[in-house]
Amino acid sequence: MPAQLLEAFSYFTVILNRLLAYLDRGVHYASGYLLYYCFHGLKPQTHTRPCRTQDGRVYSPSVVVTGASEGIGLAIALHLSSKGYTVFATAKDDAGLAEIKTAIANLPPSPPSTDGAIHPAIMDVLSADSISHCVSHIESVLGGDPDRPLVGVVNNAGYCMISPMELTPDSEVRRIFELDFWAYISVVRAFLPLVKRSHGRFLNVGSYGGFVNPPMWVPYCALKAAVEGMTRSWRLEMMPFGVGRL
To answer: Which residues fall within 8 angstroms of residue 148, CB to CB, at 6 or more apart?
Structure first.
């Protein structure tokens, strides 16, 4: 009998935990919209997509993609370009820049004015000076062009570490947090004034590791959970200014 009661109590706590999670999500979004209505005079977030205006101009809004020298970042940059966006594909060094240029050179030919331009740029997300220099470079390239506002930043740079926590040095744990968490914050802060101006969006690349926690992934799961919490909370702060997530 005690074993059956213990099992029933266990099921009850699981169900209660799930209900509280849904309640937390509901409160999260309700508070965000309440915050927006408190600042009703500010502009709402808008969806800005490439198009051709009535007077024939090509409207190609700009997006920054970090860690775009390979993998997911490169795929995102090429996809956005194929949809007509002007893309600033960043890499941390000249070697990464060369990989982006090679990928661009290998693209199949496309009809004129269907693809947006891809601008390779160096940005080491672990260096405040490099981030600041990249922001200035992008501002100078755009030159205040109303047809190419910066409407999005994709925080993608990072890496995955799989290792037994007991054998993982503290320095490696700090390193992955610096790249996959603190760098996200630095990039958002640096580009926030430009994105606010266009009521654009930020995309912080997360992972199922923030919700599902397999063994050997302790640092990665911890930081992705931190990214999820940071993104959800910061989103509420930016909603009144029309800034959101992709």
So the answer is: 60, 61, 62, 86, 142
Q: What is the pLDDT of residues 22-63, one digit of tens each?
A: 776 676 566 655 655 555 444 544 556 777 666 767 778 899
Instruction: Take residue 194 and report the two structure tokens written for it.
Output: 């430009």
Separation of alpha carbons 34 and 170, rounded Å: 41
CATH class of this structure's domain 45-241 = alpha beta
SS3 state at 113: coil
Residue ranges per structural domain of the chain: 1-42, 45-241
Structure tokens belonging to residue 244: 């959101």
- The edge-to-edge listing of strands for the beta sheet with 150-155 is 118-122, 86-91, 62-65, 150-155, 201-204, 244-245
Distance CA 120, CA 184 (A): 19
Whole-number Å distance between alpha carbons of 91 and 69: 6
Asked if 128 and 143 touch (Cβ cutoff 8 Å), the reply is: no
Q: Phi/psi zone of residue 17: left (φ > 0), alpha (ψ -120 to 50 degrees), beta?
A: alpha
CA distances from 191 to 51, 222, 228 (A): 24, 25, 19
Spatial separation of the C-alpha atoms in residues 131 and 192, rounded to whole Å = 12
The mean pLDDT value of the chain amounts to 83
Q: Model confidence over 165-191: pLDDT tens digits?
A: 999 999 999 999 999 999 999 999 999
Q: Virtual CA dihedral for 196, 70, 232, 201, nearest 10 degrees?
A: 20
